[in-house]
Every structure is written in structure tokens, then in C-alpha cells.
Design brief:
Alpha-Beta Plaits; single chain; globular; nine-stranded mixed β-sheet
Length: 881
């Protein structure tokens, strides 16, 4: 037995670090049944969504009565009823039963002929953003010129009137003047509902809906006003604040799916999706999701069905770009939905300070952008002398023992990174600092959420940080803070936001599909938060794109187009950005999708290409190497195009010499250009006709072991352009290498005890008494690559497979370097699902004896019927007494 250098002790203690707990001791994790749909996301124990196979409405009540009759101690409650043509079923909660009875209760449900599927209810995290507030009446830094929204408003007189955009979010302060001042018919916010109530969380699912989706949580609650901010981006309007949303005359709907704090469940998302669909919404906008790139899940099923009925569903791609590739989350990975990336606003609203040996004689001029800052807390930043938090200025303030005593009574300069902003502020405050200046490790000033910081703090750019370090080393440096906000250019404007999640989906579908403005977006906030403020996130980019769809649908009038066609049209004419403003190389489609939406061109241009994106998959098969694009000219004149391969930067997801197949976080750009062979280099398309072009890829010659993710854009350049026809582009990407060769596990899983620090090797016996939880064996494992399933086989003393020790290990996302998602831990309850059950596919206790675990993890894109497509790990002996 050996000790781990990193202890996670004890596993059951609060505040466990570097661990994601996956509980297998619940009955649902022990089920092996064809009707039971597994979920790799964190499940809510004892809660399920049932879909019935027919249109009957009374099945839920019948099932509940039968369970209560058979299991006297069962506390069974129907949470939600879905009587709908798109999804007929219920969600319910089972409590008060031991695991065996819980299993039998589920068996009685799964065996019902009326039951089509049973899904575990899973957590949906509260949307994460980077907020900072400003006062009403200050510049709004509207990004509409970047997306042609301003042209649609001015030239087409199109403001989205008559289009209803439904939002699923945290509620809305509709009493805000920019959001209409009221709720119901005749108001801007005309439809919607509070689905959950103020006190609801997924952990405490007490639903007490309010009469309307009004957000009145109050500043002391810690609520961020996310839904109000999102709604303002789509349809807010207030001329006194110089604020205009993307579609200011659109009608809004709000379905509140979060309480004032905490997470929600996907059963609530399903209910709200169906309610919004029934309310007649023309567009559904969801700035929410998780970090799993799989497309499975009950809410994904419902979203896909809504899209097939003709209603576009727009979903945030996620804010995990710092964690590398494969971080686009669900439900934006659901088939048919539009997954939205974020671009940074071209301008940023900041405050400024002067720098000098004293308050006068500033060293840097007011016009120098590098002296802009963003406040990270509500307290006013005091003027004062700035000193280094550590002697060399590179410290991140994460170790209180290393903070310099010189910060006492002064402002501390700290580098961004490693720990939270609150922790940095707390550590320098302990040393006596009166404020903190946090400089970016790379890039501009940034928004900070600091709910528990004891002192005020501000953020500045990496360039400002370097200058301030230089000034401090020269001598006494005093900062004088200006109170007025200033609009300044952003060095990252019109490029992909650093936080925006990176594709592809785990199945190598191109996600994200399109981008909106999500970095530094000014919009409405609840009145209890000051009415106005800026936030950053794909949460902001999603409503921005939803607003552009409202403009597009308004322009269609009575003409109908399928959501797929609309998405393609927006992709066809998107703006393609370089990966930085000082370079020529285009950013990868895995970051920007087709690019930033250009809504005027999407409305006015008559040529359409389908499909509007290409995945060449990996190089293990020739099946995906050729794609056929159809170019349709809906106009009145012939158009000629030249076909060009517009190569983007490639992404190196791994650094094999430094970290093996642990994905690089964040991603690294490399040069690796694919060649394209097209059936015709020049395409002439007469009016009211279509032409087809075959595109075949010749991948770059890079080492297949590196799995380089190449990309670019098939550009159709308009020639002889008398009618102002725009170029059209189709993004593409592929992987050099075989994804099935990627290792699943980081090193190997570890068999450990409750402490998490003692590791048992293959020849060491672990003694387990099922009556003593302190002897429970645990498996610690970290996934370098996502896996669709892990078969957790249980072997007896003859090394024969007798069944499965764990279930529920399906559709697992990869782990990241984020401490909250670094490792998985799973404990064995001493039960197993027999390989050949005699009566039911449920777990039973093992008799005393010696056993081993053998885990078979399906490789990415692997064939579940081929043994070679599994990665296998086997534990040492476990003696059950």
C-alpha cells in the first residue's frame, strides 16, 4: 500500500478538494434496464422523469398509488406532469425507502407497459457570468454596429415587432422602465410564469411559484439578476439611458426556472420548455447548461422535438474555454439546437485612475487605455500607495504566509490566477491591505465576482500590471481613482472571448455553431441591483443571437422557414474573426463556429448554402472525407463564385512531451493546414436554381498521435459583383488521428479507503465489512477523455465475471484542471447486478468472499461490440467479510 501525495481526506467531509463525487450507492445507479436512460451528469438522488408510451394522463397517479400500496414507508410525490404531444409523462420523487425497496419500486415502474423511458433528474447549474455594475444614464457601449443590428434598425425599420422570444432563466424585473413596467397582454413582457419560486433549489425542491416571473429577490439574497440582464439584451429599450436591445419591439416571455440561489433540475427545464412552446413563442432562448459535451438527456430530447416542430432553440455553448477542447456543454449539443459562442464587445466601459509619486503629476495620461480598471465589489476603492503583494510582483496572493507585510495600510498588487478573487482579497486583508489591484495574466481588465471579499478590489489589464510593477520598483507609487465611467476600445474586441467554450461535441459534431456578442455587454439589471450593469458570458451572447433571430423572423413576415434553414442562413454570412486583432490567421471554427452573426446580410442576401458546416471527423475512416454542398440562388440574377480554402489556425489539444494526453488548458494554436479538393473551382448559379459542389479534404501531415484539430472555411467568393452579393463561407474542421486511440484514464484508477490517501496495488488485499462504512472501498479515477460507458465488472475468486459492481457510469464528461472537476470518486456498497439475473436486473448483496473490479471503458467513438475499443483496468483483491 502506498500513500498519495495529494490527500483528499476525509471523503465525506465538507469542502472536499479536487474531487467530484459520483454516488453509486443510490438505487438508481444500480439499475441495469433497457428503459432506464443513464446520465453522465450529476443526478439528483431519488428523482426521475418518466415518459409514457401513449397519450394517457393518469399513468403517473396510478404508479404512485401502486408504489404507496406496496411500500408502506414510501414517500412518493409527483413533482411535474407533462401532458403534451411532445412529451407525455411525469417527474416524481421517491423517499423513505432503503435501497432494496427503492430498486423494487423502480422495477415495478420500469415493467409497466405504459412506460417508455425513465430518466434520472440531473442538476443544471446556475448560469455563471462575470458581472460588474455601473449607474444608469452612463454610456451603453452598444455592440450593434459589430453585428449589423444597427443597419437593420435604421435601414429596414425592423425592430422585431410581432415576434415572441421565450426565455428560460432566473426571472425578470419587468417593472424596470426599459422592460415595459408591467406583465401580461399589452406589455413588453407579455407571457411567462414563475415555475419554481424564490426558495427553490434542486437540492431543496420546494416549489412555491409566485404569480408572475418577477425577480424580487433583493440585493441581500446574493442574486445576480441574470434573467433581467438577458431579457434587456434581447428587447430592452430606454432612450434616457441611451439603451436599445437587439429587438426592442419584440415581445418577451420569461419562465423562471431558478430560485434566488442555487441550481435547478432538468425536470424543471422540461416543464418550462413545454410551457414556452405552448405559449406560442417564436424563439426559445436558454442561457444555461452543464459542462458535458454529450447530446443525451431528457431536456435535450424535448429541445430537439421543439426544433423539429419549427421553433428555433438557442442555447449557450458554455464558459469553460480556459479548460481546453471538448468543453461545449449540454443542452447546446442537442441535435438541431443552435449552440452560441461569445465575441468580445469592441468597447469596454471602465473607470480610470492616475498613477504618480503623489496624487498630482500623473505618470500615465488619461487617454492611455492601460489605466482603465473594472471594480470587483460595491465598495469604493480608496486612493493610496500601491505595493507588491510579494517582492517580485508575480505572486497570486493565494498563500497568506507569502504576502508581504508592506501591504499594511496600502493597496496590494496581485496577479490573477490559481485561487478565487475572494481568497486573494482575504489573504492580503489579513496582512492589513485596504484594497487590492488584481492584474490579468493575459489580456484586458475583467469582471470579478467577489461576494465575500473583506476589502474593495479592482481589475486591470496585463499591460497595466507590468507598468505598475515597473513604477513600484522605481519608487513610491500612488493611485488616485476616478469615479466616472469611460468608454474605451477593447484590445480583444471583435474576437472570440477567452472564456467561450471550445468544441467539438464528443461525437465530433461542430459546436458552437455561431457567435454573438457576450464579452462586456451592458444591459438591464433588477432595480434592487441598480437597474443597469455589464456582464460577460455566453449567457449574454445567446440572447444577442436570439434577438437577431427575432429581426430575421420579422423580415420573413408570413413566409416560413425551418430552424435548420435559418441557422444555416445566419452561418452563411457570419463574420470570421482572427484569433487576435494583431494577427492575420483566422480563429478556429471550434471556437467561433461560423463566426459572428451579421444579421443584415442574412436578411438581404438571396443565396443559401446547405449544409452550412462540415465535420470531416477523424482520419480513421474515409466515410466523412467528402461532403456535398448545395448552393441555391433565390435571387433574380446569375451569380458566379470562386471556391477558396480559407484556412484557420489549428488547435493542439495535447502537449505529449509535457503532459501526455491531459488536454492543454487553455488550448494552443498551431499551423496545420488541410487542403481541399472541390468538384469545381468556379460555380455559376442561375436565378431560382441550385448547384452542387463536392468538397474532399486532404488532412495536414501531422503526427496522428498529437490529434491536431485542423479547420478553416470553404469560401465562396462572389465574382463580377454588380448586385452587391456577399461572399459565403462554410466552416469545417477535422482531427488528424484516430480518436479511439486516446487513453480514457489518467494513469489508472486507484483503489483506496475512506481517507483517499492509501492506495492499494494489484497484489494488496482490501478488507471490506459492508456493515462498517469506514471500511468502504473507493475508486478514484480521472478521465482524460470522455467515455460513453464504463462496464464495471465484478470478478469472483476464480476471476469469473459474475455481474456489475457499479452502474450509472454512462456518458461521462472528461475531467479538467478545475478543482471542482479534477477527479471522480465512487464508493462500493457491497452489492452487484448479476450478469444473468434470475428475476430482475437489480443489485443484490455479495456473499462473503474475495472479489476484484474490472473496468472496461469504451473509447471515444469506439464500437461497443468490439473488445479492442475498450480500455481495461483491474483492481487488486477485495475481501468481503
Amino acid at each position: 500500500m502506498k500513500k498519495r501525495s495529494l490527500s483528499i481526506l476525509p471523503l465525506f467531509a465538507a469542502g472536499v478538494c479536487f474531487v467530484v463525487l459520483v454516488f453509486s450507492g443510490t438505487a438508481s445507479a444500480r439499475i441495469h434496464h433497457p428503459k432506464y436512460k443513464k446520465a453522465g451528469r450529476e443526478i439528483i438522488p431519488g428523482q426521475y422523469v418518466i415518459e409514457f408510451s401513449d397519450g394517457q394522463t393518469n399513468h403517473g397517479d396510478t404508479l404512485v398509488r401502486s408504489i404507496r400500496k406496496e411500500f408502506k414507508h414510501a414517500d412518493v410525490k409527483v413533482k411535474e406532469k407533462y401532458h403534451h404531444s411532445l412529451f407525455n409523462g411525469v417527474s416524481f420523487d421517491i423517499k423513505g425507502l432503503n435501497e432494496d425497496d427503492h430498486q423494487n419500486a423502480l422495477k415495478s415502474i420500469l415493467d409497466q407497459a405504459s412506460v417508455a423511458s425513465v430518466y434520472p433528474v440531473t442538476y443544471i447549474d446556475r448560469p455563471a457570468t462575470q458581472p460588474f455594475s455601473v449607474k444608469a444614464g452612463e454610456p451603453s457601449i452598444l455592440p450593434h454596429a459589430m453585428t449589423q443590428v444597427d443597419r437593420v434598425h435604421k435601414e429596414l425599420k425592423n425592430t422585431g415587432k410581432g415576434i415572441v422570444v421565450g426565455i428560460l432563466d432566473t426571472g425578470i424585473d419587468y417593472k424596470h422602465p426599459a422592460l415595459g413596467g408591467g406583465f401580461g397582454p399589452g406589455y413588453k413582457v407579455a407571457v411567462g410564469a414563475d415555475v419554481v419560486g424564490d426558495d427553490y433549489t434542486a437540492e431543496n425542491p420546494v416549489i412555491k411559484p409566485n404569480p408572475t416571473p418577477l425577480d424580487e429577490c433583493g440585493a441581500s439574497s446574493g442574486a445576480t439578476g441574470h434573467g433581467t440582464h438577458v431579457a434587456g439584451i434581447i428587447g430592452g429599450y430606454d432612450p434616457s439611458t441611451n439603451f436599445t436591445g437587439v429587438a426592442p419591439d419584440a415581445t418577451l416571455g420569461m419562465w423562471r426556472v431558478f430560485g434566488c440561489n442555487g441550481r435547478t433540475g432538468n425536470d424543471i427545464i422540461i416543464k418550462a420548455l413545454l410551457m414556452a412552446y405552448d405559449a406560442g413563442c417564436d424563439i426559445l432562448s436558454l442561457s444555461l447548461g452543464d459542462n458535458s459535451g454529450w447530446s443525451e438527456g431528457a431536456e435535450n430530447v424535448v429541445a430537439e422535438r421543439i426544433v423539429k416542430k419549427g421553433v428555433p432553440v438557442i442555447v449557450a455553448a458554455g464558459n469553460d474555454g480556459a479548460s481546453g477542447v471538448f468543453t461545449v456543454g449540454s443542452p447546446s449539443t442537442a441535435p438541431g439546437v443552435m449552440s452560441v459562442a461569445s465575441f468580445d464587445n469592441a468597447y469596454i466601459l471602465v473607470k480610470q485612475f492616475t498613477v504618480g509619486g503623489d496624487s498630482a503629476n500623473p505618470i500615465l495620461t488619461h487617454s492611455d487605455y492601460s489605466i482603465g480598471y473594472i471594480p470587483g465589489s460595491k465598495e469604493t476603492m480608496p486612493d493610496g500607495e500601491l505595493v507588491l503583494a510579494d517582492p517580485n510582483g508575480s505572486g497570486e496572493g493565494c498563500d497568506a504566509s507569502k504576502v508581504s507585510a508592506d501591504v499594511k495600510g496600502k493597496l496590494a498588487l496581485i496577479k490573477r490566477g490559481t485561487c478565487t478573487f475572494d481568497e486573494k482579497a482575504i489573504n492580503v486583508a489579513k496582512a492589513g491591505a485596504i484594497g487590492a489591484v488584481i492584474y490579468n495574466s493575459d489580456g484586458d481588465a475583467f469582471g470579478m465576482s467577489m461576494p465575500t471579499a473583506p476589502i474593495p478590489a479592482v481589475s486591470v489589464s496585463s499591460g497595466t500590471g507590468a507598468k505598475l510593477i515597473g513604477e513600484i520598483k522605481k519608487g513610491k507609487t500612488v493611485l488616485t481613482f476616478k469615479k466616472k465611467d469611460t468608454v474605451l476600445p477593447s484590445s480583444t474586441g471583435n474576437t472570440v472571448s477567452s472564456f467561450s467554450s471550445v468544441g467539438a461535441s464528443y461525437e465530433l459534431h461542430l459546436r458552437p455553431n455561431l457567435a454573438g456578442i457576450g464579452g462586456n455587454v451592458f444591459s438591464t439589471l433588477p432595480r434592487y441591483l441598480g437597474s443597469w450593469g455589464s456582464m460577460s458570458g455566453t449567457s449574454m451572447a445567446t440572447p444577442y443571437v436570439s434577438g437577431t433571430l427575432a429581426l430575421y423572423l420579422n423580415a420573413l413576415g408570413k413566409k416560413k422557414q425551418k430552424p435548420e434553414y435559418i441557422t444555416e442562413q445566419l452561418q452563411n454570412y457570419a463574420y470570421i474573426a482572427p484569433y487576435a486583432n494583431d494577427v492575420k490567421e483566422l480563429d478556429s471554427p471550434l471556437r467561433q463556429g461560423a463566426g459572428l452573426v451579421q444579421i443584415y446580410d442574412a436578411i438581404k442576401q438571396d443565396v443559401h448554402i446547405s449544409p452550412a458546416q462540415i465535420s470531416f471527423n477523424d482520419t480513421s475512416s474515409s466515410r466523412y472525407k467528402t461532403h456535398t454542398l448545395t448552393i441555391t440562388n433565390h435571387g433574380h440574377s446569375t451569380i458566379t463564385y470562386q471556391v477558396i480554402n480559407n484556412v484557420s489556425t489549428a488547435i493542439a489539444p495535447y502537449d505529449l512531451k509535457k503532459s501526455g494526453y491531459a488536454p492543454v488548458e487553455p488550448t494552443v494554436n498551431v499551423k496545420a493546414a488541410a487542403k481541399l479538393r472541390v468538384s469545381s473551382n468556379h460555380i455559376r448559379v442561375p436565378p431560382r436554381s441550385s448547384k452542387k459542389v463536392r468538397v474532399t479534404v486532404i488532412p495536414p501531415r501531422t503526427d496522428p498521435k498529437e490529434h491536431i484539430m485542423y479547420g478553416g472555411f470553404v469560401q465562396f467568393k462572389a465574382l463580377h459583383n454588380r448586385h452587391n452579393n456577399k461572399d459565403i463561407t462554410v466552416p469545417y474542421f477535422g482531427v488528424v488521428g484516430d480518436q479511439r486511440e486516446l487513453p480514457i484514464f489518467d494513469d489508472s484508477p486507484y483503489l483506496s479507503d475512506i481517507t483517499g490517501s492509501n492506495i492499494y496495488g494489484k497484489n494488496e488485499t482490501f478488507v471490506f465489512d459492508p456493515k462498517d462504512e469506514n471500511t468502504t472501498p473507493y475508486i478514484l479515477f480521472r478521465l482524460l477523455t470522455p467515455t460513453a460507458r464504463i462496464d464495471a465488472e465484478l470478478l469472483d475468486h476464480k476471476n469469473k465475471v459474475i455481474g456489475y459492481a457499479f452502474n450509472g457510469l454512462e456518458y461521462l464528461p472528461r475531467n479538467t484542471m478545475n478543482p471542482e472537476n479534477y477527479m471522480n470518486v465512487i464508493g462500493w456498497s457491497g452489492t452487484y447486478v448479476p450478469k444473468h439475473p434470475s428475476n430482475a436486473p437489480f443489485a443484490v448483496p455479495v456473499p462473503p468472499g474475495t472479489y476484484r473490479f474490472r473496468w472496461r471503458a469504451l473509447k471515444l467513438l469506439g464500437n461497443p461490440h468490439k473488445h479492442r475499443d475498450y480500455e481495461v483496468w483491474e483492481s487488486g483483491p477485495i475481501k468481503v467479510v
